[in-house]
Design goal:
By secondary structure, the protein is an all-alpha fold. The chain has helices at residues 2-14, 19-24, 29-56, 59-79, 84-94, 96-121, 125-152, 163-171.
Length: 172
């Protein structure tokens, strides 16, 4: 029972990663481009935290940012400079799912740093929770509402042939 739950959890988490791209890629040019884009984005975002946090004395958030920045830069240096064939060889050795989760940790780290920053800046944990929910809710609620509207929309009926047109259709 527990291994089935873990497998279900892993499959769910892999939907938020590059797993499908990594698994289906032949030449790894697209994987290398996505890897470099993600690591560069993470590095830029994490560097932007220092201008905010150091000025306000948020040492815990700054330390966490430094650790995730170190991880992003290490991954960029270690994997980003490989040729596509070299990257493919490394990914095949480590496993597609492991590589996809490794790359996704940068995105998760950026989110955690932002959430920790909001909690550090807000005077109240209740206010911070409400602000975070208000920011995250549209990404969850809008697709859910669209799905509900589409699923409950009445079906459109096919046009029917009227009696006068039916005789013409039968003659043709």
């Amino acid at each position: 029972m527990i291994p089935e739950a873990v497998q279900t959890l892993v499959r769910s988490l892999l939907q938020f990663t590059l797993y499908d791209m990594v698994r289906s890629s032949r030449d790894f040019e697209d994987v290398k481009a996505a890897l470099n884009e993600r690591t560069t984005w993470s590095i830029d975002v994490l560097r932007s935290v220092f201008s905010i946090r150091l000025a306000n004395g948020g040492y815990f958030v700054t330390l966490c940012s430094l650790l995730i920045l170190l991880m992003a830069e290490s991954m960029h240096l270690h994997y980003g400079r490989l040729t596509p064939s070299g990257l493919k060889e490394r990914v095949d050795n480590m496993g597609h799912a492991t590589f996809a989760i490794l790359i996704a940790t940068l995105d998760f780290g950026v989110v955690v740093i932002r959430v920790a920053g909001i909690f550090a800046l807000c005077g109240s944990s209740w206010l911070a929770t409400c602000l975070i929910f208000a920011c995250v809710a549209p990404t969850v609620l809008v697709p859910l509402l669209i799905y509900l509207v589409k699923s409950f929309r009445p079906r459109t009926r096919q046009p029917t042939i009227e009696r006068g047109e039916q005789g013409v259709a039968e003659q043709n």
